[in-house]
Amino acid sequence: MTTTLDDVDTPFDVPALLRGCRDAVTPALRTAVARLDTASREQAEYHLGWVELDGTPGAGGGKAVRPALALLSARAAGAPERTGIAGGVAVELVHNFSLLHDDLMDGDTERRHRPTVWARWGAPSAILCGDAMLALATEVLLEDPSPHAAAAARLLAVTTRELIRGQAEDVAFERRADVGVDECLSMAAGKTGSLLATSAAIGAVLAGAPEPVVRGLQDYGMAVGMAFQLVDDLLGIWGDPGVTGKPVLSDLRSRKKSLPVAYAIQRGGAAGRELAAWLARSGDPDAPELRAAAALVEHGGGRAWAGAAARRQMDLAERALTGAGLVDGPRAELVALGRYLTDREF
After folding, report:
1. Per-residue DSSP letters for 137-162?
2. pLDDT higher than threshold 60 for residue 2
3. Labelling 56: which of 102, 116, 181, 206 has CA 20 to 30 A away?
4. How many CB atoms are located within 10 Å of the residue 13 CB?
5. What is the pTM of this model?
6. Under a CB-based contact definition with an 8 Å cutoff, are residues 61 and 48 in contact?
7. Which one-letter DSSP state was computed for residue 61?
8. What's the alpha-carbon Rg for the chain, to the nearest Å?
């Protein structure tokens, strides 16, 4: 019996799927991290949640979404799951390289309620640890026995350049008052979408899958990444702090030009102009100011637009999988995983 996209309403235990993929990749990831110099290894193991500051075992950190996508992409191309393991290790290393640097650039002293690496060991250590993880990602891929390892490594290199482009634009936007929606979407495609697109295709690349399969998986991953960023931006304003782990109205508190904010400023009329004037002010806003700013984003249409845009992106993601010639079971799992990542309350 052929599985269709309509069939994926049958519940998948997505958390169990993520745990299974994480368990499959973690031994290879630990082996790779063990190659690092002593200081970088200690910091990477702490950042990854494997150990605490006092040396006791940690609970592990993150859902390992990107490694899961790498394994599922191998399976979706008809290859064994293990074909995607090196890709899963590589994308997880690149993701965590970016987190180490992001924490430093944003001045964040906590991640998942634990001190960040730069806050504990200093900025130079965080930079070096991140750089070491990035180099290690390429090393792991090029050592893979797949005849397509070099193609996978090239894909990851291009992706890293795109990720850095997105981050550079995000930093530049902080100094500008005239950031448009299209610019923000391009930034999000680099900073968030590019690595998810590659994660969703790298296992298929290692398996030597045909170009239409790889392209369909990349398009799926990019669309999921864009939907995820849109939802994340909504949660940055209206999310429950108990769920997000961020202070209430956190993105407005930092005067971040997120996607709903950019939309409201550019297309929200009087509310947008008032919001732009508020963002241009200095000083730490108090709670009434933050609530008023959130109301301006909503009155300017930012909240409704971002929610609708996230739903459109998920529709694009699922359509990208339809004609790509994927194995049915993993295809349905990819749809379920995408919905799990983006179906969050805001």
Report:
1. HHHHHHHSS-TTHHHHHHHHHHHHHH
2. no
3. 102
4. 10
5. 0.93
6. yes
7. -
8. 20
